[in-house]
Each structure stands twice: as structure tokens, then as C-alpha cells.
């Protein structure tokens, strides 16, 4: 069994460009382009990300979203914003977790977070 995450999008090509850059540290690459699907995979245990082109834009809040665990929260948020992500929240903290909610270029929410055990010098 394998977990595959599917993300509906109006422009799968633009979304692929964003997510390939966003997931660069995990070495994601295009595995298959068979409209309406554009499939991104990475070596190792990372889940497959399937971009499914649909005619309608996103509406409302995501019921499921991606969380990206990083080593430097603020630097990663800034990098993702430069790629086209939009910040939806200030930094939040709960139970030792620190995170920021972002949206990809089509408005799909995702979180960038540090777990409680992460120690570092980033702000």
C-alpha cells in the first residue's frame, strides 16, 4: 500500500512548477504527465503528489492539507513566499509545535512547521 496525495487544480502545469520548487529539498520530479493528471514523485518514503486538473477553482477551506516539517521555519516560509505562496497566518505555537499557514498559488492551504524537539537559532 502507498499513500498518494491528490491536489485538484485549475492549472496543473503552474502548480507543478510551484510544488516542484517548494519540494526541492525532497528531490521531487515529474513522473507522469497524462492529462488530467500530472504526477510528482520523490525517492524514498515521500508520498506521491498527483495534480489533478479540474475546471472549477478552489472554494472554501481545505479539509485535508499538507504539512511540511522544516529545520528553519522563518527561512522556509520566506523561500516559499518567494516562489508564490501566500501567508495566511502569523507564526503560531501549540504544545511546542511552531507553524505558519500558507496557501499555494491556487489557494490550497498548507502548513510549514517545526516540531517540539527541534532546537535551533532561527527566529
Automatic annotation (TrEMBL):
Cited InterPro entries: Glyas_Bleomycin-R_OHBP_Dase, Glyoxalase_6, VOC_core
Pfam hit, one: Glyoxalase_6
Domain VOC per the UniProt entry, residue ranges: 1-115
Protein name, as recorded: VOC domain-containing protein
Organism: Kribbella flavida (strain DSM 17836 / JCM 10339 / NBRC 14399)
Species classification: Bacteria, Bacillati, Actinomycetota, Actinomycetes, Propionibacteriales
